[in-house]
Design a protein that fits this description.
By secondary structure, the protein is of the alpha/beta class. The protein has 16 helices and 17 strands. It has a single domain, classed as TIM Barrel (Alpha-Beta Barrel), CATH 3.20.20.80. Helices cover 41% and strands 16% of the residues. The chain is globular and about 50 Å long.
């Protein structure tokens, strides 16, 4: 699945008074048809996309579906498969922020009604980058609740992940063959000195918290104590163990140069740049969860020569091929996003209007060098990879086809669906390194 995305981030800053809306900043609300033309011109058939939650979800049971209807039905007409991104770093004003215990159920209700309205949609990312969302909102004090304590961080984690799990439950009731592609940040913390080994180990355990809970995996003992010490109850913890939907998931992971960190003895961190790289860090996540992998986000600034992003694309793609070549089932790649982004140079902490040249297209919808390179990459590799794959075929239904199996036959077919779907099955040989 070669993909790109149209970012629908909506965090609030300034104590909740200012909304940072990436669709507004990129002029997508006005130019969405043109943006979809760009997706088609690239030869991209999968698009990470979703309606802005704060403009769509107006209150309990109250929705404004106009923009969602226009855009999603146009994607359906174009036969571009959406990977629907329902919640991206923010919530509507009436919910407040991720400290609100009502968020999880309210979001699940929204997901249920969304799936009811768009039964042809199969691929979902219910909550984008759960770990980053919780850390930036409730540990670093940057977005939404702007808290900085372990208590607020754990509270955000349990509400965010519960929302994601409940949303999956509700969507599966309406689309039993739904596939959930987590888009989660893949992190690593490097010890700067022997005295920093302890703090680095704690951070390297903490990075798995959202996915451990989401996949119903028992957390490490140190993280269990951390959760219990900071407000999670045993009942809340067992909710995650009792709602294991891993068999419906693809582990989508994101990698940027900012994802690796250098840890000092006092616990301070700083950017480490690309040290291990995507392939090595993804091996760690795959070894833990044993799920198919999709590279769901990466980008790089175009830079002064115009080739910096092109070189990064090539490097990330080489990492993806390496994963496949060593037998890790890898099913997709994404350059994120379609157009340049705005104010990510300050991690959306300030609303300055600074354009970040990270997209396949600039904000005038002119194709950047990396867009040309990605278009050629897709053309070159589209037909080669399926023929050389020994991993699995993702059971995606063509747009407009009914879901499989029929709802009334779901109970009897669930195991069979898993066998035909995301279960890895037999892998009898290795892809040649030359692939």
């Amino acid at each position: 699945m070669f993909a790109t995305g149209i970012e629908n981030s909506i965090p609030t800053i300034n104590g909740g008074k200012t909304r940072v809306d990436q669709m507004e900043a990129s002029d997508h609300y006005r130019r969405w048809r043109e943006d979809f033309d760009c997706v088609e011109d690239m030869g991209i058939e999968y698009l990470r996309f979703g309606p802005p939650l704060h403009k769509t979800f107006l209150g309990p049971g109250k929705y404004d579906w106009e923009f969602a209807d226009l855009t999603l039905n146009d994607l359906k007409r174009r036969e571009i498969t959406p990977i629907v991104d329902l919640c991206h770093f923010g919530v509507p004003d009436w919910i407040g922020n991720f400290q609100n215990p009502d968020f999880s159920q309210q979001f699940a209700n929204y997901a249920a009604d969304f799936a009811e309205r768009y039964p042809w949609i199969q691929l979902y990312t219910p909550v984008n980058e759960m770990f980053i969302c919780a850390a930036f909102s409730a540990k670093y004090g940057w977005w939404n609740e702007q808290e900085r304590t372990d208590l607020s961080f754990v509270t955000a984690i349990k509400h965010i992940v519960k929302a994601n799990v409940l949303a999956m439950v509700e969507i599966l009731k309406r689309r039993p063959d739904a596939i959930f592609i987590q888009s989660e940040s893949s992190e690593y913390f490097h010890a700067d000195s022997p005295a920093a080994i302890g703090p680095a180990e704690v951070l390297n355990s903490r990075r798995f918290l959202t996915l451990d809970l989401n996949y119903g995996r028992r957390v490490d003992s140190e993280m269990y104590e951390y959760l219990m010490d900071n407000g999670m109850t045993r009942e809340e913890y067992h909710f995650f163990l009792g709602n294991r939907l891993k068999q419906h998931c693809i582990l989508g992971n994101d990698y940027y140069r900012t994802n690796e960190h250098r840890v000092h003895a006092d616990g301070r961190t700083e950017a480490a740049g690309e040290t291990f790289g995507y392939c090595e860090i993804t091996r760690q996540y795959h070894n833990r969860y044993r799920l198919p992998i999709m590279h769901t986000e990466t980008n790089m600034r175009e830079g002064p020569t115009g080739q910096e992003a092109v070189q990064w694309l090539w490097k990330e793609w080489a990492n993806v091929l390496r994963l496949r070549n060593v037998g890790i089932p890898t099913v997709g790649f994404t350059w994120y996003s379609l157009t340049d982004q705005v104010d990510w140079d300050t991690a959306l902490r300030e609303k300055n209007g600074n354009v970040n040249p990270l997209g396949l297209y600039d904000l005038n919808r002119n194709l950047r060098n990396v867009g040309k390179a990605y278009k050629q990459l897709i053309k070159d590799w589209r037909d080669v990879l399926p023929a050389s794959s020994v991993c699995l075929a993702v059971p995606i239904k063509p747009i407009g086809h009914d879901c499989w199996p029929p709802r009334d036959d779901y109970a009897g077919k669930q195991v069979e669906a898993q066998d035909k779907g995301l279960a890895l099955g037999n892998q009898s040989q290795s892809t040649p390194e030359s692939a």
